[in-house]
Amino acid sequence: MFSKHIFSNICLVVASLIWGTAFVAQTTGMDHIGPLTFTNIRFLIGGLIIFPLAIKEIPRFKKLLKKKKLFIIIFLTGLSLLLGTFLQQYALQYTKIGNAAFLTILYVPFVPIISRFVLKKKIHWSIWLSVSICLIGSYYLTVENSFDAQFADFLVIICALFFALHCIFIDEYFEIVDAPFTLATSQFLLCFLYSLPFVFIFENPTLIGIKKEIFELLYVGVLSSGVAYTLQIIGQRYVKPSTAAITFSLEGVFGSLAAWIILSQFLTTIQIFGCFLILVGVLTAQLIPLINKEAASSRYHSE
């Protein structure tokens, strides 16, 4: 069991690193195609990459085909992933990568909020402290931006909400069946199918434009979608949600560093302070339950 925890933590760290660096490719990959087209193709690539691994799980999955709840969870997992990813992709046209990266990790305190008001679970005071700190940090991170950038930052906050739902649905899935590659493939292909009609309604994709963005599409499709989201699912099987959330918060750090090194996107002192507060808020929500028995007993997940 100890080795499984180590392996899971490695999966989560690698996933966070890939997501963080993928912000650069997501930003530079929209010069010739729109955000819907980019999102649609990345999930098609991710689904095709993971599909061969899901085939081995078919016998295990067949036994549960009659459970309607399983299909509802898979449907909602794909929908929440698509909405979170598209909003993030759209917002990257107007806001800095550092802003998007740090605002995305707000999904960590969003998970207990959803658990309290939707699932009616008790939440420890440390969670509300975390949420307050994160909101203050979000203000400092976006206060110096233009109106367009502030609206984009708001969209990223909404995308974080959908990513929080995505995490919750993954936990619900594993309560029914242990088939990570089936879930990964299903959510990717559902994202592709959900978004396909909207691509042709709202955008005008061309093969020439797609070809010009092929490097970014392959990087994000194979690594960020196919590999990283699958690693997230694998990692959440054996690691407590508190530990997983701490690891995922590294995505913001990796994203900001990648934008600084590759695109020279610098943050102001005020924005760096906002990033710091968000990290403090995220870590507060996850570390206090690890050292406080009362907080641990009132976690928003059964551990």
Folded structure, characterized:
- The structure is a single chain.
- The protein is mainly alpha-helical.
- It has one domain (about 1-295).
- Helix content is about 80%, strand content about 0%.
- The protein contains 15 helices and no strands.
- It has helices at about 1-30, 35-55, 60, 70-90, 95-105, 105-115, 125-140, 145-175, 180-200, 205-210, 215-240, 240-250, 250-265, 270-290, 295.
- Helix 2 (about 35-55) runs antiparallel to helix 4 (about 70-90) and helix 4 crosses helix 9.
- The chain starts with a helix and ends in a 6-residue tail after the last helix.
- Residues about 300-303 have low confidence and may be disordered.
Can you give me a brief rundown of this structure?
By secondary structure, the protein is mainly α. 81% of the residues lie in helices and 0% in strands. Residues 298-303 have low confidence and may be disordered.
Series of secondary-structure elements, N-terminal to C-terminal: HHHHHHHHHHHHHHH
Helix content: over 70%
Provide the domain count.
Answer: 1
Number of strands: 0
Q: Report the principal-axis shape.
A: globular
Instruction: Provide the low-confidence segments as ranges.
Output: 298-303
Largest sheet: none
Radius of gyration: 19 Å
Q: Structural class, please? A: mainly alpha
Question: Count of helical segments?
Answer: 15
> Strand content of the residues, in percent?
under 5%
Mean pLDDT across residues: 85
N/C terminus separation: 15 Å
